[in-house]
Write a structure and sequence with these properties.
Two copies of one chain form a homodimer.
Chain A lengths: L8 H15 L6 H8 L3 H8 L2 H24 L5 H18 L7 H8 L6 H26 L9 H18 L6 H13 L2
Helix pairs in contact in A: 1-2, 1-4, 4-7, 5-8, 5-9, 7-8, 8-9
The structure holds a DNA duplex (30 and 30 nucleotides).
DNA sequence: CATTTTTTGTACCTCGAAGTCAAGAAAAGA
DNA sequence: TCTTTTCTTGACTTCGAGGTACAAAAAATG
């Protein structure tokens, strides 16, 4: 019973993700969000409660998608070093191709948020843990397959890959120097 | 001629740095800045022109200090791996000790700013280049001293160290797990 | 000490961010 | 079809961000 929603909430959240990616949480106004989502400001608040709740929803959507892509690469059949390389290169390519140089919404949000008790902050923490876990699992499997020395600590390697990945996605926001970034990717892959 | 300033502009900028570190550029209001700087809002605008100019001044102050500390460590007499380790550990320690978990103003600002033409963005880019340069120079010297294999690309290594450093300073904002961070430091040092 | 020049701080201004609301529109069910 | 329930929207409200203005205060200079 009751009127059905005119817009698809999932699509609307995707649009919100785009908005937050471009301008960050703080600098994106409700009006801007509503415009980009193709709905009225009232509908936005009716459907999502507040800007912050919409932000959390956006983070969840983005994190789901990111994690799926991460898994798609890291659980693939290629040699582990190729997978890691492909992962990092895909970020560099995507980020450099974007004229706004948005970078990663998760990374940017971690840097932007200040309240560690905020649900969004907690979510971001979990999200990063999940990513690390996917990488680590892939490295463990690669060790079992003899692709990586068994005496290396997979948690340490996974941490380094993740840190490099996060660092790359920050650095890419300030440079156009693809060669420099490619060197970082090379160096990261060679540590494995 | 004319009345002398009651406050020391350098000290005031240091206070502004603290404010921006805690809450970021966007979320720090002029009133808040004035309060923490111990001056009136009018004086703030009289002395610094605008919030954005004060921000740039704050970045410059912070970057100067950071670069000096970076040089102090990286140009030291110890073995290169010890120096890199000490560098990374000092960040982890400092960041974890801080209850607000502010992280690095430069890293946070890179993530927060969206306008790449903004003088602040350009400054941040140059600042990161300077850091990389200091690290790379130290690595080149270490190669000359036989501490590091001569056939490794110092630019690649420096980039990796920097990316790991930046990544660490993002990750440290979401975790309390010192052991995990220590593993990342270990792994980074071992790549050299 | 008078003048000039600069600093100081508060009161004030404007504008837009964030959110609310009332009135209407549309779907589902009796 | 009429009712009920939910959705939609632009107008409205509130509040604080960012910045200005002005009058008082204080230092340097003659």
């Amino acid at each position: 019973m009751g009127r059905a929603k005119k817009f698809d909430p999932d699509v609307a959240v995707e649009r919100a993700v785009d908005a937050f990616r471009v301008r960050g949480y703080g600098e994106t106004s409700p009006q801007e969000l509503a415009d980009r989502m193709g709905i009225g400001k009232g509908s936005l608040y009716h459907a999502f409660g507040s800007k912050h709740e919409l932000f959390l929803k956006s983070l969840e959507h983005y994190a789901d998608q990111s994690l799926a892509e991460l898994k798609a690469v890291m659980e693939g059949p290629e040699p582990i070093r190729d997978r890691v390389r492909r992962l990092l290169e895909s970020f560099v390519d995507a980020d450099l191709r974007d004229p706004d140089r948005c970078g990663c919404l998760i990374v940017n949000s971690v840097a932007e948020l200040h309240d560690r008790e905020d649900p969004a902050s907690r979510f971001l923490g979990r999200s990063l843990e999940n990513s690390e876990s996917v990488i680590r699992t892939a490295l463990v499997a690669a060790q079992a397959a003899g692709e990586i020395d068994a005496d290396r600590d997979p948690a340490a390697l996974a941490g380094l890959v993740q840190a490099a990945m996060v660092g790359l996605r920050v650095l890419v926001k300030t440079t156009d120097d693809r060669a420099r970034l490619a060197l970082i990717v090379d160096a990261t892959v060679q540590t494995l």
